């Protein structure tokens, strides 16, 4: 069964290149060149993936991200940006993009990122049969089957990548992971120079689940090495 992909990109050459590459992954791709029309389409029906340019006429990619993440329905978002500053990349992640590519990008990297996002969603939708249904640590509860997270019984809204990152930590309490290990095991690829993607996601997770993100109870920094999950109920 083909996956439905929406590409919102005003550069027609890039849009057609993306469409061609994703067609090779058995994707049914629709291309829209205007931000306002693209947002309307993304809200009108579910897609398996949204490939989104940052700079668009009408409504920019950041606003589209923000609007989509305010909805209950989740759609994985791969953001494309011609800007090279870290601030622009972090802004995209802060608004809810799952990943990003900086133009110009190689088609091999594009395909690798898309495959990684599809694998991530597949794992979340179809967890292993022997996996526990929930993990609890102090006031934090992760319902794996329903893909829901609560802190002190209050629901926490996470993107698929944030959920997978938190689940990866919680399933391995006490184990220290470097940024490159997390890129490989959670994002599904290893590329030097993308470690700040891990930092941004961890900062967002802490802001959502920690009482005091500066003194985290759950996701702790191991200086000079990486991060670990402390199961507070067992300390």
UniProtKB/TrEMBL annotation:
<feature type="domain" description="Response regulatory">
    <location>
        <begin position="4"/>
        <end position="118"/>
    </location>
</feature>
<dbReference type="GO" id="GO:0000156">
    <property type="term" value="F:phosphorelay response regulator activity"/>
</dbReference>
<dbReference type="InterPro" id="IPR011006">
    <property type="entry name" value="CheY-like_superfamily"/>
</dbReference>
<dbReference type="InterPro" id="IPR016032">
    <property type="entry name" value="Sig_transdc_resp-reg_C-effctor"/>
</dbReference>
<keyword id="KW-0902">Two-component regulatory system</keyword>
<dbReference type="InterPro" id="IPR001789">
    <property type="entry name" value="Sig_transdc_resp-reg_receiver"/>
</dbReference>
<dbReference type="GO" id="GO:0000976">
    <property type="term" value="F:transcription cis-regulatory region binding"/>
</dbReference>
<dbReference type="InterPro" id="IPR036388">
    <property type="entry name" value="WH-like_DNA-bd_sf"/>
</dbReference>
<feature type="modified residue" description="4-aspartylphosphate">
    <location>
        <position position="53"/>
    </location>
</feature>
<feature type="domain" description="OmpR/PhoB-type">
    <location>
        <begin position="132"/>
        <end position="231"/>
    </location>
</feature>
<dbReference type="InterPro" id="IPR039420">
    <property type="entry name" value="WalR-like"/>
</dbReference>
<keyword id="KW-0805">Transcription regulation</keyword>
<dbReference type="Pfam" id="PF00072">
    <property type="entry name" value="Response_reg"/>
</dbReference>
<dbReference type="GO" id="GO:0005829">
    <property type="term" value="C:cytosol"/>
</dbReference>
<keyword id="KW-0804">Transcription</keyword>
<feature type="DNA-binding region" description="OmpR/PhoB-type">
    <location>
        <begin position="132"/>
        <end position="231"/>
    </location>
</feature>
<dbReference type="Pfam" id="PF00486">
    <property type="entry name" value="Trans_reg_C"/>
</dbReference>
<protein>
    <recommendedName>
        <fullName>Phosphate regulon transcriptional regulatory protein PhoB</fullName>
    </recommendedName>
</protein>
<dbReference type="GO" id="GO:0006355">
    <property type="term" value="P:regulation of DNA-templated transcription"/>
</dbReference>
<comment type="function">
    <text>This protein is a positive regulator for the phosphate regulon. Transcription of this operon is positively regulated by PhoB and PhoR when phosphate is limited.</text>
</comment>
<dbReference type="GO" id="GO:0032993">
    <property type="term" value="C:protein-DNA complex"/>
</dbReference>
<dbReference type="InterPro" id="IPR001867">
    <property type="entry name" value="OmpR/PhoB-type_DNA-bd"/>
</dbReference>
<keyword id="KW-0238">DNA-binding</keyword>
<keyword id="KW-0597">Phosphoprotein</keyword>
């Amino acid at each position: 069964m083909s996956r439905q992909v929406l590409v919102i990109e005003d550069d027609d050459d890039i849009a057609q290149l993306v469409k061609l590459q994703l067609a090779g992954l058995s994707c049914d791709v629709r291309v829209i060149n205007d931000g306002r029309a693209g947002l309307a389409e993304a809200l009108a029906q579910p897609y398996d993936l949204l490939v989104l340019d940052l700079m668009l006429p009408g409504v920019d990619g950041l606003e589209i991200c923000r609007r989509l993440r305010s909805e209950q329905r989740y759609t994985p978002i791969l953001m494309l940006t011609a800007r090279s500053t870290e601030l622009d990349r972090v802004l995209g992640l802060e608004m809810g993009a799952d990943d990003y590519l900086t133009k110009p990008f190689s088609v091999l990297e594009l395909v690798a990122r898309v495959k990684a996002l599809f694998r991530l969603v597949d794992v979340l939708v179809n967890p292993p049969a022997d996996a526990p249904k929930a993990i609890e640590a102090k006031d934090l509860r992760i319902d794996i089957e329903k893909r829901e997270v609560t802190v002190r019984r209050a629901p926490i809204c996470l993107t698929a990548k944030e959920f997978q990152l938190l689940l990866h930590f919680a399933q391995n309490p006490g184990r220290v992971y470097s940024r490159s290990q997390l890129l490989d095991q959670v994002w599904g690829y290893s590329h030097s120079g993308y470690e700040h993607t891990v930092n941004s996601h961890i900062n967002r997770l802490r802001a959502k689940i920690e009482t005091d993100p500066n003194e985290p109870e759950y996701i702790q920094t191991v200086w000079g090495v990486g991060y670990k999950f402390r199961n507070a109920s067992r300390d």
